[in-house]
Design brief:
The chain has 541 residues and is an alpha/beta fold. The chain contains 18 helices and 25 strands. Helix content is 32%, strand content 26%. The strands form five sheets. A nine-stranded mixed sheet has the order 14-13-15-16-25-24-23-20-21. Strands 2-9-1-10-11-12 form a six-stranded parallel sheet, sandwiched between helices.
């Protein structure tokens, strides 16, 4: 009979996701079939499974830790914030409508604006969402010995307890014991743990069987008296103190964790390494696309805010505009902040690679057209105008696909002005893979297509080509494009050569770093926690 154990946290970003990943790896190495499960996740970082369904990126990492293919049942409810207190609701991988979680909504009292926004009725949402959680959990139980569940936010948000499916509601459905994770690095960990227990009712509190103190720096002896008093108050044991795990190269789940990510590396000068600038768009999404660069030992990833000092752009060797939940509004703010003009000036005066992914790809072009107001109230907006393309939101349904394509660079474009051709000519014709999550279409005007589609949709409904390139600028709808090592290696080697740095080959450092990081994480957690006690929760009736 499948056993379920749930990891909840005192707050968002307490470390739930990585504790779940560690436990998935620990029990997988012991020979059990293990699956992660997060009933409800709110994140702009998502992924397309092999079923061409959309789930949060955190469950993809947890599945990797368990050495299994991620499936939609590992995250049956995904909420993607759209702004104005509204989120897109994705149930078992498919968008079903929008939900405003900051007001009660009855469809019998719908305004025309509610109808236009495809707003979901509160009762309808609760029924559909709960059915999806039960269905997905039951499917996982058919195939796995152990399910390690993850909560969302905090179970102490008592104003949300009625109808909850993210924390105690999910634990109740699965009849799961719960471990509570507290983040000591933020401070106030004893109060946050004790306060969580105080705010729960007796039935919910009875499910909590232990506490994990996470992200500790320092001497553990200093905590002994505090832990003894805490255990007296909450009447469950502290199962261990997990030290702050330095230098893990693992995908970040959301913007909260992105803020805490340390991109800093020590170099002697700006000439002895590569600097990749990344524009931190206001509604940045799928920023895990840039993670592979962080694994390269001679690459510095520099996050650049729209209102940052323009000096941050001065010495970069390449610029990436990542995905965004709203390319029209982000382009508007880029203009208002002056960042758009700074990028145009950079393009004109310094011929470095400028790259756009999905929404960032649309921003590179001449115009973004949104007559149906799918993203904003703007009918259209001028883009950066550095790639001769035009994008429009005219699709009825969102494209959610795992995709395969081949480089198809124009072999007639061999003169020195075509920098993109120079970068990738050695791998022209090679296969690349990625995943698509977009509602926009893009038409190429003067720009050339980057890839020929084998599986997927790409630029428009013809499904023949994806992406575009023109001189030193290129873009694509493929997320995960830099996970293709040959593509990333050729881009970086082009820059290395221009700076007089050593050309690199060999194994993909990113794949190696993720696997090594998962092993390191699992070893840290296994050593820190009372695993015999956790075993007893999972295996003893």
């Amino acid at each position: 009979m499948t056993k379920c154990l749930m990891i909840q946290g005192t707050a968002s970003n307490a470390g739930k996701s990585l504790i779940v990943a560690a436990l998935c790896r620990i029990y997988t190495k012991r020979g059990y079939k293990v699956a992660p499960f997060k009933s409800q996740n709110m994140s702009l970082n998502s992924y397309t499974t092999k079923e061409n369904k959309e789930i949060a990126i955190a469950q993809v990492l947890q599945a990797k830790a368990a050495n299994i293919e991620p499936t939609v049942d590992m995250n049956p409810i995904l909420l993607k914030p759209k702004g104005d207190s509204c989120s897109q609701v994705i149930i078992q991988g498919e968008a079903v409508g929008n939900k405003d979680f900051f007001r009660k909504y009855d469809k019998t009292k719908a305004t025309q604006k509610d109808i236009d926004n495809n707003l979901m009725d509160d009762e309808d949402y609760r029924i559909i969402a709960k059915e999806a959680v039960i269905d997905s959990l039951n499917k996982l139980k058919e195939d796995y010995d152990i399910i390690i569940m993850e909560g969302a936010g905090s179970p102490a948000e008592i104003n949300l307890r009625e109808g909850d499916l993210a924390n105690m509601g999910a634990a109740e459905i699965a009849d799961a014991d719960v471990l509570l994770v507290g983040d000591i690095d933020k401070g106030g960990v004893f109060a946050s743990i004790a306060g969580t227990f105080l705010l729960l009712d007796d039935a919910d509190r009875s499910r909590f069987k232990g506490v994990i103190i996470n992200k500790f720096r320092g001497k553990q002896e200093l905590l002994c008296s505090g832990i003894e008093r805490l255990e007296e108050i909450i009447e469950v044991p502290v199962l261990g103190i997990v030290p702050y795990a330095e230098n893990l190269q693992l995908p970040e789940e959301d913007s909260a964790s992105l803020k805490e990510h340390n991109w800093t590396k020590e170099f002697e000068s700006n000439r002895d390494h590569i600097i990749i600038g990344v524009i931190k768009l206001p509604k940045i999404a799928n920023f895990t696309d840039i993670d592979p660069f962080d694994s390269e030992d001679d690459v510095e990833v520099r996050m650049i805010e729209l209102y940052d000092d323009k000096e941050k752009l001065r010495d970069i060797d390449a610029l990436i505009l990542p995905g965004t939940r709203n390319s029209t509004e982000d382009m508007k703010e880029m203009e208002e902040s002056g960042m758009a003009d700074r990028i145009r000036k950079l393009h004109k005066n310094k011929h470095i690679p400028i790259i756009g992914i999905c929404g960032g790809y649309q921003i590179l072009g001449n115009k973004i057209i949104d007559k149906n107001h799918k993203e904003s109230k703007l009918d259209e907006i001028d883009g950066l105008g550095i790639l001769d393309i035009e994008s429009e939101f005219i699709r009825e349904e969102k494209i959610v696909k795992q995709s395969i394509a081949n480089f198809e660079l124009d072999t007639d474009a061999k003169d020195e002005s075509e920098q993109t051709y120079e970068m990738f000519s050695k791998i022209n014709g090679e296969e690349v893979t990625g995943y698509e999550l977009h509602e926009g279409t893009t038409n190429l005007l003067g720009a050339k297509p980057l890839f020929r589609i084998k599986e997927g949709m790409g630029n428009n409904n013809e499904g023949k080509y994806d992406g575009a390139y023109q001189n030193n600028v290129f873009g694509t709808y493929f997320h995960g494009i830099f996970n293709n090592y040959n593509l990333r290696r050729e881009l970086l080697n082009h820059i290395r050569e221009s700076k007089g740095l050593e050309i690199k080959t060999g194994e993909d450092p990113y794949e190696t770093s993720v696997e090594n990081s998962l092993e390191k994480l699992a070893n840290i957690v296994e050593e820190a926690l009372d695993m015999d006690y956790i075993d007893s929760l999972i295996f003893n009736d």
